[in-house]
Design goal:
The chain is α/β, with parallel strands linked by helices. It folds into 2 domains: 194 residues, Rossmann fold (3-Layer(aba) Sandwich), CATH 3.40.50; 155 residues, Rossmann fold (3-Layer(aba) Sandwich). Helix content is 45%, strand content 13%. Strands 9-8-7-10-11-12 form a 6-stranded parallel sheet, with helices on both faces. α9 links the parallel β7 and β8. α9 packs across α14. The longest helix has 22 residues. The chain is globular.
């Protein structure tokens, strides 16, 4: 029986999010295989995905309201979790190690005869943030120390694999396997949400830098005004002072709005009631919101860049990055053509069949079988 050791990193970093969801599904799937054993069995974490999958320890503590010393107690348990992983590493009581993020703390504890498998999600820091800051971020430094030393690398898209080889040309291509992610199906019944615009286009997630949100708002501004359509933003925080200033300068605050979302059911409702979902980002590792749009029968418009054609296939409309007229034309096509919307929805439903967690787990097992 092969023992696969996972660590605490991403579950300390994320209470909710794509990477922690991926590792939760991976641990659940591998744990069901009779030839494999997942270590540890449970984590202490506030992570929603772990909690929903009964993979958390001290779950009653998470449910308790604040009390004096609760924060110190939680930090002490988290530290104990880290020390537990280090103890397993030092004693070699495992067969394969898969860190859940990039902190290389484990290198000095990992026995020389024990392999580690590293998942690389994207090279966004290397392509964008490091150039802006003119210095390597901690994440980039961590990856630079791990990628050459990993016994095998899992890239979540062919685009990510290509980027890894560009930034690390000395890495053997045969050492990289592409394993696509998936998305969990939301409820098929959209719950009613108060205050939704009558007609809106949906934007989901963080809006900074390479996400290209400011360009999107500026490009669609006049079209939204003339068509009485709202650009609705969800899945991140409210507009900050800079964003409000930008939107105010182009007189867009009346039709570019933010809406808070509580849970998956509300997010599902936003997708299901939207005219379409637009993902204008210039760089992604995979783009799970694309699949979320497909699940919720929402027509999808993507920038023709990065991993998007790989994920969206023929189930989305694409615009050329930087081409404002092209984007407005694609939006207009979806808004005014019911038959096109229905065609994209049907293709999206079909496209989902190739992205599922069962396949993700099976492809990981093929990697583990190498060792």
């Amino acid at each position: 029986m092969k023992r696969i050791l996972f660590d605490h990193q991403i579950f300390r970093k994320q209470n909710f999010g794509g990477i922690s969801k991926y590792f939760t599904e991976l641990m659940k799937g591998v744990g069901k295989e009779s030839e494999y054993k997942v270590l540890p069995k449970k984590f202490f974490s506030k992570n929603v995905h772990l909690s929903e999958s009964q993979l958390t320890r001290f779950s009653k503590l998470n449910k308790l309201k604040k009390f004096p010393g609760k924060g110190r107690l939680e930090r002490a348990i988290e530290k104990e979790e880290e020390l537990r992983t280090i103890d397993i590493l030092k004693n070699g009581r495992f067969d394969i190690f898969q860190p859940t993020y990039y902190n290389p703390y484990f290198l000095k504890h990992l026995p020389a005869d024990k392999p580690f498998v590293l998942t690389v999600y994207d090279m966004i820091h290397e392509n964008y943030f490091d150039k802006v800051m003119e210095t390597l971020s901690a994440e980039s430094e961590w990856k630079a120390s791990l990628i050459p030393r990993a016994d095998h690398i899992i890239a979540i898209s062919h685009h990510t694999k290509k980027e890894i080889l560009y930034h690390f040309p000395a890495v053997d291509e045969a050492k990289i396997s592409v394993v696509h992610l998936a998305a969990t199906g939301y409820t098929t019944e959209a719950i009613k949400m108060q205050g939704l615009p009558q007609q809106y286009i949906l934007f989901v997630g963080v809006r900074k830098y390479y996400k290209n949100f400011q360009w999107l708002a500026e490009t669609l501004n006049e079209y939204l005004k003339k068509s009485n359509i709202t650009l609705l933003c969800a899945g991140s925080g409210d507009f900050d002072a800079y964003e409000r200033n930008v939107l105010g300068r182009i007189d867009a605050l009346s039709h570019v709005k933010y809406i808070p979302v509580k849970g998956d059911n509300e997010m599902a409702a936003l997708y299901q009631n939207a005219l379409c979902f637009i993902f204008p980002s210039l760089e992604e590792g995979f783009g799970i919101p694309v699949l979320e749009g497909f699940i919720n029968k929402c027509p999808v418009i993507l920038s023709n860049a990065s991993c998007f054609p790989e994920v969206g296939g023929d189930a989305a409309l694409y615009f050329e990055p930087g081409n404002r007229d092209d984007l407005v034309e694609k939006v207009s096509q979806i808004v005014n053509n019911k038959a096109l919307r229905e065609e994209l929805i049907e293709k999206g439903t079909e496209r989902l069949k190739i992205f599922n967690w069962k396949s993700t787990v099976e492809q990981h097992l093929k990697v583990y079988e190498r060792f």
